Amino acid sequence: MPNLTEPSSSVSFASSSYLSNGSSAYHAPGGTAPSPSPPPAAPEGGTNLEVLSLSKLSSNLERLLLDTEFDCTDAEIVVEGAPVGIHRCILTARSRFFRDLFSREGIGGNRQEGKLRYVMNELVPGGRIGREAFMVFLSYLYTGKLRAAPQDASICVDRFCAHDACRPAIGFAVELLYASSVFQIAELVSLLQRRLLNFVDKAMVEDVIPILQVASHSKLNQLLSHCVQRVGRSDLDDIALEKEFPQEVAEEIRLLRRESQPKESTATVDPMQEKRIKRIHRALDSDDVELVKLLLSESVVTLDDAYALHYAAAYCDSKVVTELLDLGSANVNLKNDRGYTPLHVAAMRREPAVIVSLLTKGASALETTADGQNAVRICRRLTSAKDYFTRTEQGQESNKNKICIDILEREMMRNPMAAEDSATSPLLADDLHMKLLYLENRVAFARLFFPAEAKLAMEIAHANTTSEFTGIAKSRSSSNLRDVDLNETPVVRNKRLRSRVDTLSKTVELGRRYFPHCSQVLDKFLEDDLPDVFYLQKGTPDEQKIKKLRFCELKEDVRKAFSKDMAGSLLSGLSSSSSSSSPKSEEKHHPIYVIMQVSKTQVMAEKSYIYQAEWLVRNYLLADHLVACTSVLVGIYLWKMAYDVTHTISSLYYKGYASLTKIQRIEWNNRGMSSAHAIFITVTSVYSVFFSDLFSDHIEGLVIFRSSSLSIFTLGVSVGYFVSDLAMIFWLYPSLGGIEYVLHHLLSATAVSYTMLSGEGQLYTYMVLISEATTPGINLRWFLDTAGMKKSSAYLVNGVMMFIAWLVARILLFIYLFYYIYLYYDQIRQMHTFGYLLTFLVPAALFIMNIMWFTKILRGLRKTLAKRQ
C-alpha cells in the first residue's frame, strides 16, 4: 500500500516541530496555562542539532508507547476486545477530546487494577476504529510522525491487485481519518483527506461508499463533494443510494444525475411497475415472504423483474434468502443492470449463509461481472490479509471473510460426484440407530471444534429443527433431550428417525462440500472412537476391496467361534438349572428365562467379539505406522538383494568384471542397485501421479493430505534405498560420491520420510521422485566408460538420451512443480511448519544441484561430439 506520509504533502511530519507541538495543541481556558510561544529562531549552526534532538525525543516517546517491558501507562482503551495502554498526560497535551475526557475523573471510565479503562465503542459511537489504525494514530500523537500502514491490515488477498485502491487500503485510511476527526487532530485530518481524494478516482464505486460516509460524518466538504461527483457519474442504483447514504446526500446525487442527463435521453419509467417493485422490497425488509407471494400473485411483476434475489442477498437475513429460493421462481444466475448476479452481491456482503444458500440452489461461482471479476475475486478484494491469514484456535469462530473465500474457491474446484453420499455415513451401518448415532456424534463434535462452520451448515440443512439439537441448550442435568413416547408405533418411529438421519446427512454433506479441511479433522478425530469405517475407506478401490474382504473373513471366523462357545454355554446352563429346587430358582432356571438370558448375553458377547476383530484389523492390518516401518525394512532387504544380484549376473556374463578393482566392483554393484531403485520409483511415481485415483480431481478433499497404504509402502521402500546408499557412501567416502551426493541423499531421505510418516505433500514428493528416471542413463554411461566402450556409438547415443532425459525430468518437470506449488499455495499453507518448509527448500536445493549437473552433462556432450567430428 502507498505510504500515507506523502512526500508531496505541504505538511511534514518528520521534521516540523511546529506541527507536532503547536498546531494540534489547544488554548487552555481561563488562563490556566500560557499559550505556547513560537519557537525561537535557531541559528544555522544549531539547525542540525535541533532536528537531531527532536528526532531523538520522538523515538524515546515511541518507545514509551511500544515498550511493554516497563509499563508506565496509567489508563487503557479497549479496542477489538484487547486493552491498549496509554499515558493520559501525553494524550491530554495533544488532543482537546482527551483533555475533556480525562478532566471528568471517573466519568466514562472503569477502574481495572488501578487504571482507568475506556471502551472504544463507547468513545466513538456509531463508528469503527480498528486496533491497527488506532495504534498508528497513537504513534502519531506520541511522535509527531505518521507511520506507514501495516501491510496485513491494508492490503487485500487478491494476488492480481495492485493494492493502491482496494477495500482494505481504503478501510484503513477511513478508520484513521475517523479517529483523527473524532479525537480532533486537525492536521492529520487534512493529510488523510488528501489521501482519500486520490482513492476516490481509482476505487470502484462500491468502495467509495465508506469514504463518502466518513466525509459526511466529519463535515469534510471538499472530500464529500468529490465523492458525490464520483457516485453521480457511476451506475450505482437508486436502492443503494437509499440504503447506504444519508438522505440529503442521496438527494444531491439524484439531482446531479438528472442535471447531467439530456432530456431526450431520459428513459420513461412505469410508475406503477416501480411502485409494485418497491412493495416487494418493503415486504422483504419486514422478512415477510408470505406477503411477497401474495404480491406476486396479485400483479404481473416477477421476482426477476424486481431483482428480488439481488435485494435479499444484499440487505435481508439469510433465512429470508433461503425462503425466497424455496419459492423456485427466481433465476439464481440472473444479472442485474450492473452485470451482477445474486452471488456477486452476496460476495460483496460477505455473509456465508447467503452464499451457501445460493450455491445449493445452483448459483454459478464461475459467472463474471462486466469487468471480468467472479465472486471469489470480489470477496478476496474485500478481505484484508489479517482477516484471511490469522489462524483461529480449535473451538473459536473462524473469520467470516475467510469462510466465504474458502466456500467459493471450493465450489469453483468442485466436481460433483454421484457416489458422494457414501462418504456421509459409515459402512456396515445399515441399522438406522447406528447410523443416526454416528451422524449425531459427528455434528456434535463439529459444533464443538468448528462452531461457525457447523452453525452455517446446520442452518442451511435446517438441522436446528431436529429433536436432538433443539434441546441442546437445555441443562445437561435433564434426563433426556426428548421424552420417549411409549405409544409410538415402529412405523412412526422409523419415519421420525429417517427424517433426522436425512437432515443430519445433508449437514455432513454440506460440511464436506464447503469445509473439506474441517471435515478431514473430524474424520481423523472420529477414527479412534468409531468402527473402522475410515480405515476401510482409505486407499485405492482395489485396496478397499481387499480390506473389506479380509474384514468380513475375520468377522465370519469370529461368529463361528462364538456360536460354538455359546452352544456349550447353553447346554451347561440348562443342565445346571435342573439341580435347583427353590421356587425363585425354578423361575430363574425356567428354559424360557434361560434362553432369554442367553440371548442377551449372546448379543453382548457377539458385539465384544466383533469389536475385537475390528480392533485387530485397525491395529495390525490397516495401521499406517506399521506399513511405514515394515516398508523401510523391506526396502533395505530388497536393495541388498539387488546389490547381490548385480554381483552374480556381472560375474557370470561380463568377463571384465573380475579384472576390476575392489572399489570398482563395489561401485558397479552399487550402481546396479541404484538403477533398480530408479526404475522402481519412477514407475510407481508416474502411476501414482498420472494414472491412480489417489490424487485425482474427482475425489473430495485437499490433495496435499491424501495418502494410501500403497503410497506409504512405496515411499518406505525408497527410504530404505536412501538409507542403504548413504551407509555405503559414508563407509567408503569419498569413493562412491562426494559431498554433493551426501547432500542430495540427505535432502531426499528427509523429505520422503516426512511425507511417508505425516501423509502430507505426497503428490509433490512423487513428482520430485519422477526425476530418478535419469539415473539408469547415468549409471549406463559409467558402465560403458568402465568397460572401455567410451568411443562406441552406444556411448554417444547414451549421452544424447541422457541430455534429453535430464532436461525433461530434472529441469522442465521441476519448473512445472514450482508452478503447481504456486497454484495450490493456499492448500500448502495448511501443512505443518516443517512440511511447509520442506515443500519449498528441498525442491529448490535439488533444482540448483540439477542445473549444476546439467551444465556438466552439456559440456561432456559437446566434448564427445567435438571428438567425433
Helices and strands in order:
Blueprint: H1 17-23, H2 47-66, E1 75-79, E2 82-86, H3 88-94, H4 96-103, E3 110-112, E4 115-119, H5 120-123, H6 131-143, H7 151-154, H8 167-182, H9 186-202, H10 205-218, H11 221-233, H12 238-244, H13 247-260, H14 271-285, H15 289-298, H16 308-315, H17 318-326, H18 342-349, H19 352-360, H20 375-382, H21 385-389, H22 400-413, H23 432-449, H24 451-461, H25 467-470, H26 490-514, H27 516-526, H28 533-537, H29 541-577, H30 583-588, H31 591-621, H32 624-653, H33 662-691, H34 709-731, H35 739-758, H36 762-769, H37 775-786, H38 793-823, H39 825-828, H40 833-868
Parallel strand pairs: 1-4
Antiparallel strand pairs: 1-2, 3-4
Explain what the structure shows.
With 869 residues, the protein is mainly α. The protein folds into 5 domains: 17-31 and 46-203, Potassium Channel Kv1.1, Chain A (2-Layer Sandwich), CATH 3.30.710.10; 269-412, Serine Threonine Protein Phosphatase 5, Tetratricopeptide repeat (Alpha Horseshoe), CATH 1.25.40.20; 415-472 and 488-530, no CATH class; 542-621; 624-868, no CATH class. Helices cover 66% and strands 2% of the residues. The chain contains 40 helices and 4 strands. Helix 3 crosses helix 4, helix 9 runs antiparallel to helix 10 (205-218) and helix 37 packs antiparallel against helix 38. Pfam families: Ank_2, BTB, NPR1_like_C, TRAM_LAG1_CLN8. InterPro entries: Ankyrin_rpt, Ankyrin_rpt-contain_sf, BTB/POZ_dom, NPR, NPR1/NIM1-like_C, SKP1/BTB/POZ_sf, TLC-dom, Znf_C2HC_NPR-type. Pathway: Protein modification; protein ubiquitination. This is Regulatory protein NPR1.
